Description:
Mean pLDDT: 88
Largest sheet: 9 strands, antiparallel
Distance between the termini: 149 Å
Number of strands: 15
Number of helices: 5
Strand content: 15-25%
Helix content: under 10%
Structural class: mainly beta
Low-confidence stretches: 4-8, 10-15
Amino acid sequence: MKAPARSTPLPSTCWPPCGVLGPEPGMKGRCAPSSRGERGSPGVPGKAGPTGPKGTKGDRGEKGAGGEKGEPGQLHSCATGPRTCKELLTRGHYLSGWHTIYLPDCRPLTVLCDMDVDGGGWTVFQRRSDGSVDFYRDWTAYKQGFGSQLGEFWLGNDNIHALTAQGSSELRVDLMDFEGNHRFAKYQSFKMAGEAEKYKLVLGAFVEGSAGDSLTPHKDHFFSTKDQDNDQSSSNCAVQYQGAWWYNSCHSSNLNGRYLGGPHTSYANGVNWRSWRGYNYSYKASTMKVRLT
Length: 293
């Protein structure tokens, strides 16, 4: 019988074949390098590892360059600021209260504006309400002004002069007694001269008012205080009636007199306005205010 033909072995790159023991004990055949196959697809990402410890703070960097200069702010000034409470009203400030205005010499001045009474726009320069402030003061005190924004005050003769030097201003006086009755007096014009003229009262005609006219008799008279007697009397009216006013010989009104709380037995030394309740009644409240016309 014919022996089967020997099959031809496939060529191998290894001899002995890979993994077959070689001629020496413990030696396997060494494979010749073959070409690299195609790269497989990326695997699914693993879970994130734990957060590492916080690093130490680095050194502060150098200061950066400065920015460009901004536009000028819109600040009130002597040129653009309001001159009176009436001007504030025309600019849309409708609430009564303390506001800053600018006098003709460019000085800012904080004043109480009454935006409610008689059309509003009034600048208040005198207020009495509870007797908390002593009005029996000297010339310097009245020149500079005194009192509290929360209560009673006198704005100061220099300030009143500056306010009324801007043009023609009308005057309104408001009074209230201890029964809650309100009366007023209104004058066509009001101006206070400067200190060189002893703060003389320059007053226009009485226009109207339920309180009657108790200021016209003081027209063209100088201001007097306990330490500067400028009245027409042989005595010092300011001392005699314990106030400070445009006394003649002596007065028909004394709104800077003693706060005596209604009826009083002493004569004419209270917060008096003769044409309403006479010389023996001191009012609970008074205000004097001007408005540029």
